[in-house]
Known about the structure:
Structural class: mainly beta
Strand order of the largest sheet: 3-4-5-11-7-8
Number of strands: 11
Order of helices and strands: EEEEEEEEEEE
Amino acid sequence: CGFEYHGPKAHLGFAPRLMPEDFKCAFTGAEGWGTFSQKRGARNAECEIKLRWGKLRLKTVSLAIADGVNISTANVLAGGKLIRAGLKVADQRAIITFADEIQLAPEMDLHITLA
């Protein structure tokens, strides 16, 4: 799943290699655990982080993007509310940086749309 986690930096990342077009896995952090899922299309990707227990601080999320896909926008919802975030694309990775650190709780899913 290409999992990366750095608690002090509030960073979480995924780069699945097996079936990245329709992928789901579990993850654990220092203070919580949950699931990550993604669905890739020809020009976009939908990703969701669902915390099942505990809490998860996030400042950045890193996601692998498919070869040849041009990503220019990231739309981020946390608990159904739009979150301000910046996007940097380098080396087939989209790095989403939140304007303010967010803290996920079990009732607050994070949904990211890359297009």
